[in-house]
Amino acid sequence: MEGTGVGFRKDLVSKLLQLHFTNSKTKVGGDALRLMAELLTIFVVEAAVRSVRQAQAEDLALVDVDQLEKVLPQLLLDF
Fold it and tell me: Does 3 score more than 60 pLDDT?
């Protein structure tokens, strides 16, 4: 995935992190932003892959939110 331009923008990751900080003066370094962006990308791709596998196991042609809901608990435990 590296170098393909796929992933989360650093400004979006920064905004998501800032929403959860209790102190508005908290700063996030560039390396931490890149790491979080990579983690979010891996998480989303893994969720998509597991949802596809779940849909295949159910003999469905399309992935729906129902498949994501079924794989999400284990995905959260794995991360």
Answer: no
